[in-house]
Every structure is written in structure tokens, then in C-alpha cells.
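Reproducibility note. Readers wishing to regenerate the assembly model reported in the main text can use the exact inputs given here. Chain order matters: entities are listed in the order in which they were concatenated for prediction.
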Amino acid sequence: MGESISPMNGGSGTYSYARNSTWQKNGAAAMENALKEAVMESLDLQNVLCDSNTFIVADLGCSVGPNTFYAMDTIIEAVQRKCNKSSLEFQVTFIDRIGNDFNTLFASLPEHGRNRNYFAAAVLGSFYGSLFPSSSVHIAYSSSALNWLSKMPEGSNATKIHYNGAPDAVVRAYETQFEEDMEVFFRCRAREIAAGGLMLFNMAAAPSRDVQHHVASMLTFIESILIDMVKEVYIVFALRKM
Amino acid sequence: MGESISPMNGGSGTYSYARNSTWQKNGAAAMENALKEAVMESLDLQNVLCDSNTFIVADLGCSVGPNTFYAMDTIIEAVQRKCNKSSLEFQVTFIDRIGNDFNTLFASLPEHGRNRNYFAAAVLGSFYGSLFPSSSVHIAYSSSALNWLSKMPEGSNATKIHYNGAPDAVVRAYETQFEEDMEVFFRCRAREIAAGGLMLFNMAAAPSRDVQHHVASMLTFIESILIDMVKEVYIVFALRKM
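Running the prediction on these inputs yields the following C-alpha cells for the assembly.
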């Protein structure tokens, strides 16, 4: 989410995030039951709503869709089932950092009243900072986004693609940055989420410091190909300039 | 605001709205005192806030800035002066129709905490429809936007630029469309604005059916030049194709 890190590709072209996020979609689908369960078991509806008739959900790191819409539908359906109050209205806020293509996000929103039963808004900002007034969010959700650190830690190597087998100092630099970021993230959410509300998130994780052997070999192999390709492009570019 | 009507030009280039909205800025500046006065005299703070600590403002037809930011600052400053409660937080939602350049709007937002003392969100939609949950807005504001009808009325002539001296039937068609639109607009806002809140707007208007004589002559003259230019472009285009 840091300024120096590239966001997802906007638009809806061949290389857009919207058309290249099946892995993330599968992650969100696997989470569907977990979401429903969390809402049914842990959401304190009476406390969180007080006298309000509006339920507010935030998707932190939404990108441009369409995965975010599936998750929002799941959460809203679960809250509706739990609440059983037809007058309850929903407001969903989609959050991402500068550089995200909000025009595409808005253009791909399902039609209100027909395929979307919530009011939609967008917020620009990093989730490693304050995004909302205090106690103004009822459910904060984040899918496949918290793996993005706020910035590259000092001591990291910008030419590397993954850190499997990296020196201990580099691994520690990433761990420290992650811990710092998580502290800021949770401090901000603690202020923003109303008492009785929920924070729901999924993120990729490795079971230990070293990624499992076959994944590691694959990543190292892909890395070497990509680095060769980059070199080749530079050479072609240099030849063209001669 | 209708789908068939062009929105403001996005981006920040030579022909962008951001660099060609001085007239609208002057209109907003003239409104500054009126805004302050309305907040001081007519806003029922206790009633509108109830127990909430967040004050919510909506700009309907915001375009891409920067005029919207001046107006929001004026409104917030006036509410702060009236309320005198340092813990009060502000949330501003910028609304415009599909085709508005929200990426530019977000990119031009003043920095939060430094030059902006409110949380900012954007909503895509026409103000001739529901945009928010009921009673969820404290001040709704609209500047130089309500002159955009929801659609071209039947019987209007798409090749005309203005309707000074138009047949009575055409003038009536526009009047009817305007009346219908205004009814929808106010019905929606009545549902969305909390009791004790405010609706503040400015819009261009003519003192009578016929625009004053010298303005009318000027408009007719400009119209004839523009129509000639369009014809010429068509001719040049046709010649190039030959």
C-alpha cells in the first residue's frame, strides 16, 4: 500500500486486475462460509447499531472488482438473515490507495436496487492510516490485501521478486515492517469500528519462514526467467537506440 | 445528469473542468456568506447530530474539483464555529454521475490532517435518485449543478445550443422536465437529510422566460459561430476523406 508500490492494473483489458484475479476470487469463495459464521456468531447487532437504521461495511483494499462485490453480497446477506428487519439499509465503502482505478470500480458496480442492495461509496487512502470517523464502521473486511506492506523495509533488495532463502537480516527486516504495519492497522480499526462490530480478513501466509520446498523451487525458477526477460528487453531497447 | 448528457472534462489538461471553472468558482465565492449565514441561523445542531460525533456533508454534482473543496471548507468551518466541540469529526461525500473523473477528484484532494480536516468519500450516481440511506446526511450542498436536467425533454432540438426565442412548446417541454426533476430531487433529499439538517444550493437562472436582450443577442451570435465551425470541420473532414 506504500506510495512506491504499484497498485493493481486498472481498466478491464487483458492485463487488468479485474480479468486476472481468479486466485483472489477463489480465496474469497473459500472464505464465504467463514464470513457467514462470523456474522452469525460474533456480530453484536443490538450494540453495534444502537438506534441507527444503517449498517456500514468497509472493504479495505478493494481494488477494482469484481471480487469485492461477491464478498459484500455475502456479508450483507448474513447480516440481513441475522437481523431480520426489512427496513435496515446498507452502506458499503470501498477503500484503496492512490493509483487504484476508481473509475473502473464505479463503472463495474452492479445496478442499485436490481443487483445491488446497498448504497456504495469509495474512499481513497491507505489502510495503514485513519480512513473513517471513530465508531462509524460496523464490519471492516479485507481480502488478499494485508500482504501489501506500507513500504519496502530498509535493507530489502528491490531487484528481488521473492525472499525465499534470503539472508536472515532481510527476513527480519520484512518481519519488523509487517509487525509495525499490523500494529498501525489494528490501532486505526479499533478506533473506527463501533463496539460490537467485526473485523474480517484473509491474507496469504507461509507456514514457516521457508516456503515449502516445491513452491520455493518454482518461485526461484520463475524469478530467473523474469530477470532474464527484463535483461533481454533492456538489450533490445539498447540495440534499437543504436 | 442524464446518461446522454456529457459530464465535465476530467483530468487537469488545458480543456479540463478543473482548469475551466472560474465562472463556477466565482458563483461559489459569492455564496460563501450565504452558506455561513444558513449554517449559523438554520442548522439545528442538537437535533441533527443526536448522539453522533460525526457530521456528514454531501456535495451533489461535485465534478473533479477544486471548487468543491472551497465550499466544503466554508461549510465545515461554519459548523465548527457554531458547534464549538473539538471532538466533532467530519465526513464529506462527493457525488457525481457516471463519466465523472473520480481518479482526478481523488488525486486533487488536499492532504488529510494538513489541508483537509474531514474524511472524504465519493459516490457515483445521479442526484435525481436515492444516493444515501435515510436520515444519514446532515448538510446536502449543490453548486452550479441543478441546471443539468435528468434527460433532454421530448420535443427538444439536439442541434440547438440555447433556447432563447424558442417556440413556446419547446420552452414548456423544458419547464415540465425541470419541474419533474426538481420534484424527484427534493423527494430524495427529504428522505436522506436528517431532521434539523440543511439543503444548500445555487444554480443559474433567468429572470424571465426570455433571457435579457443583450445576453440573448450574444448567445445567438456565439451559436451561429459554433454551428459554422462544426460545419467547417465536417467539410474539412469530408475533403480529407476524398
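We highlight two features of this model. The beta strands of chain A are 54-60, 89-96, 119-124, 137-143, 193-202. Helices of chain A lie at 22-42, 45-49, 67-83, 102-107, 168-192, 213-241.
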